[in-house]
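Notebook entry, structure prediction.
Reason for the run: the old model in the group folder had no record of what sequence produced it. Starting over properly, with the input documented here first.
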Amino acid sequence: MSSYLKVSGTKVVDGDDKEVVLRGAGLGGWMNMENFISGYPGCEFQIRTALAEVVGPIKSEFFFDRFLEYFFQEEDAKFFKSLGLNCIRLPFNYRHFEDDLNPRVLKEEGFKHLDRVIDLCAKQGIYTILDLHAAAGGQNTDWHCDAGTHIANFWLHKDFQDRTIWLWKKLAKHYANNKWIAGYNPLNEPTDPTHNAVIKFYDQVHDAIRSVDTEHVIFFDGNTFASDFSHFGDVHKKWQNTAYSIHDYSVYGFPASPEDYVSSDEQRRRMKNSYKRKREWMDQHGLCVWNGEWGPVYARKQYDGLATDTINERRYKVLKDQLAIYNQDRLSWSIWLYKDIGFQGMVYVSQETSYTVLLKDFLAKKHRLAVDAWGADTAQVQHIYQPLINHITKEIPQENQNLYPFPVWKLSDRVGRLSRSILVTEYLVKEWAEHFRGKSEAELDEIAKSFKFENCLRRDGLNKILMDNAQTRSSS
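New structure, fully documented this time:
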């Protein structure tokens, strides 16, 4: 690789000013584990603590290290490249690089797996984008920033922001000379209720990165889960070599879809309008847009039975129609996600592996209780929570019901997050960990191997759509 990628107007280009459209996926559930991806309840810090209590800290560290090793290897990179994709977004958790009880002391071991995967991808001609998915204090209101609360304390305590700026300066210095890194995504899906603190933070982290690395692209997410740039004004004039990230999930790709998706003119119009609203500020100012997350979730035969194939065919229609919109704009994108236990991944862990056999009944219980917020099907528990929703609706004046991050979180979403995804999951964490009691290192290694490429199935419908699209775009 002879040159860095850079932003030129609305495009990403190489050293010869030739346009490079980045098309790929996010490696979610790896260096930032997530409950619906990896099969545990709650947040990553909770299950790491619980597992250490059950099997001891040495065995626990061994298991998670092997998990990180097996989750993405050379076989994964080769398969990814075979689909015609050219970029992987690498979400990571700040806890790999810094401890809350020992702040601002860099954990060099945090680079072990990140360096390894960046190099694996580079050997296959795949760019990477480094994504701080979980920052100290929690930069958003959801589980995936690993804070265990719905309060985004990152925006309430300056020290959390200062520590993140410190970390990015360390990361940028470490990776400054790596030209296969397309750029840095400093903060995933911020939810700043003031809409101003996020801009101030971006200004500071931009300058910190640029003090040690003037070459790599910086990808800034919009506020409110990468959906809102309406308060950014003219601040882009201060930032160099910067692109702006939306996350463009369509409601039609989820169990909560208001209707079956049939790709009608009206449905496609709504889908396109939602996408255009998210990128409106960038289009007004002639800026570069990157879609850092998008994509449907999929039905599973063990839960959805005979309806599985019908549901998934509808989800593939959503996928195709979103791609058609993106292709019109020659949009760079990163679908969510590459690998999981069967809900959204391009590849997913087989039901015959040690991990899924061990946790089969527990995973079914989690699904029944709808404790994972992402794509939750609340059919079996809605009767429990609906009275609470009705109670709040009745007792709280209408003007006080739409709490931020409304409208992304409606009142029912908030009740679900706090009651199911935070409260109920607290009582499930130990139950998950107890499945590992008495396991030897050899057994833990075998369980971790469940996530190796050779033990995964491929979601052929999804992968064919992505591959066909890559072939069509490369010839156009």
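Summary: Residues 308-328 form the longest helix (21 residues).
The old model has been moved to the deprecated folder.
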